[in-house]
Amino acid sequence: MPFRFHPGPRDAETRARRGTLETPHGRVETPAFMPVGTRASVTGLTPADVREAGAEVILGNTYHLLLRPGPEAFRALGGIHRFMRWDGPILTDSGGFQIFSLSHDRVITEAGARFRSYVDGRPQLLTPESSIAMQTAIGSDVMMVLDVCLPSTAEAAEIRAAMERTHRWALRSLAARTNPEQALFAIVQGGLDPALRAASAGFLTQHPFDGFAIGGLAVGDTRAERGEVVARAAELLPLDRPRYLMGVGTPPDLLEAIGHGVDMFDCILPTTLAWQGTAFTSTGRVRLTRTEHRLSELPLDAACGCDTCRGWSRAYLHHLFKCREPLGPRLVSVHNLRHYLDLMRGARAAIEAGRYGAYQRERLEALDRHEHDRSARPPGRRRLPEPPPPTPAAPPAEAPRDGARFHLVVTSQGAPAVRDSESGEVMHPVIGPAVEAERLYVAQSRLRERLAEPGPPLVLLDVGLGAGSNALAAIRAAGAVPPGGRGLEIVSFERDLGALGLATSDEGAARLGLGPEDLDAARALLRDGAWGSARVRWRIVLGDLLETLPRQDLRAEVIFWDPFSPRANPGLWTLGAFAAAWARSGPRCALYTYSTATATRSALLLAGFHVGVGDPSGPKEQTTAAATDPALLARPLDARWLARLERSSAPFPPDAPPDALARVRAHPQFSARREEEVA
User: Fold this and answer.
1) Annotated binding residue at 479?
2) What is the similarity comment for this entry (predicted)?
């Protein structure tokens, strides 16, 4: 059966529309969400699970399937449908986004993209023709052209050059297609420039592609910018062809894009966040790792009819995540997919009834308000009150009363520190905040020496603000640099400002030894969300780091990674967290953390960093240092550490890919050494 798209009813208030795709492996009702089956598997779920959730089409990843199992396997085994036992339609991407994510290890020319395989380290060349050949071997129902994907915030000249090359590659992809029953979609690029997006749509729609995708979004743009691009691009695409928004996104993203006339979506969030303990529900996100769910007999989502919500309580799911039982991520993945697919079912019904506008408003009101609320309320927090007008002298924060979350304590070596009663953890638990902030972070990062050099302001990411010790130590270091050096921009990330409030109280300041200048800066940060001097700018970003960090338009030179431990805050010690840090790192960025866990170091390696042994701190004989440039590491991990990794009982973070060991072995940090030894 050849590919066909049949447009259906349209909503009167919005541009939302119904439709049906006909493919060789069945029909797909649109708007449709495609679960991501990167390696011919939707992580942790069987095809029956995915079908039961309501999926009609899934997405496979050409880049990963090219490297393993490879085209020969698909040709020998009868294609991907038989291989993975999924009898419905499959769309395969081209590999363009994955190549983009290998910015440290790939070269793009007019011929294609050269990179090294993470499986065996061998050089690879992905061209428009070889991408189509691979997708033909896979046997997908819909293929994507190979495109050049850049951050939407790249320079205008780069965006234009990438768009024009994408157009040339699209025509080469079209010429390379050999099976007319496999549909081929082109990809509209152009960054955030309306003129470039119009030019891209105008060029591609002149050619006989079966559908059109909107690409290059959710890679540095804001939600408002993304919405404007989607609205404009969708309006420029033909009514008789499907429109596909690539890699986006959250439930509010989908609802808004449907209103602009988009038909197809994919995103890794439902399964990726499930493995981190986050569920999407009809009333917003639920983070099952939080203590508040420990004794809860409530279902995950009372409005959901999936097996997870019918069968298990939040308390049981919380228990599974605390024990790191893989059943927890599996059950939440089942629910999250059902939530996304129910959202699509509701949208289709609302369009047919002529009330999609009302449906969209109702769902946005109930869902993750922090993602579309004008107040920019951080995830999981109550709406913040309007800040008071600035005053010459801000009143000090009150000391905590009994029952407060944060308390002042004394460490085992007699240093004052702050304890979080919710997690049970002490900030800088041995030698205290002042000493550890200086030794582990400021001195080890050579912050004073870096600031003394000429150049633009140094961007420092302070992950885990806590009581402000690391950021204040950095501010003091900047104050000691002679005139003529660089400025310092500190961006701190935190979910709860209670610890900083305690530290800036009269008792907290006295016990922790904060001076008048420390207090002025910290109290201004609490009051206004930012503080600045002639040399330093300091601001706070509130919310879940995995959601807030990707939205920041910056390139860090130094990262202080100091959240609570993996036991208390597992989400910030994952591959996903360090990949977000990598994406916001400059070419000579260094990251420092107290954790020496094997899983932490392997997560950093998998994210792209080079990793080494950090300086000792207090009783710690070593810490961990990581860098985008290996020359910044004094003691890189070597073959002995790799041997320990292979023997470890907990070698990888919970979101590591199945081939994590092969990827670490193939990391340039180790593969380059092996090549030197062989030579």
Assistant:
1) no
2) Belongs to the queuine tRNA-ribosyltransferase family.
In the annotation, is 638 catalytic?
A: no
Instruction: Report all structural domains of the chain as residue ranges with CATH numbers, in order of start.
Output: 1-7+36-248 (3.20.20.105), 268-380 (no CATH), 433-678 (3.40.50.150)
Q: How do residues 238-266 score in pLDDT, each as one tens digit?
A: 999 999 999 988 899 999 999 999 999 99
CA angle 246, 250, 251 (to 5 degrees): 110
Is 266 annotated as catalytic? yes
Catalytic entry in 11, 93, 141, 253? 93
Catalytic residue among 49, 266, 301, 655: 266
Does 309 appear as a known binding residue? yes
Q: Give the separation between CA 657 and CA 536, rounded to whole angstroms.
A: 40
Under 8 Å between Cβ of 239 and 270: no
**Is 189 annotated for ligand binding?**
yes
- Asked whether 661 and 645 are in contact (CB, 8 A), the reply is yes
Reading phi first (left if > 0) and then psi (alpha if -120 to 50, else beta), residue 20 is in beta
pLDDT above 50 for 377: no
How many Å from the N-terminal Cα to the C-terminal Cα in the chain?
A: 55
Residues 517-569 pLDDT 10s: 999 999 999 999 999 999 999 999 999 999 999 999 999 999 999 999 888 88
Task: Check the annotation: does 95 bind a ligand.
Answer: yes
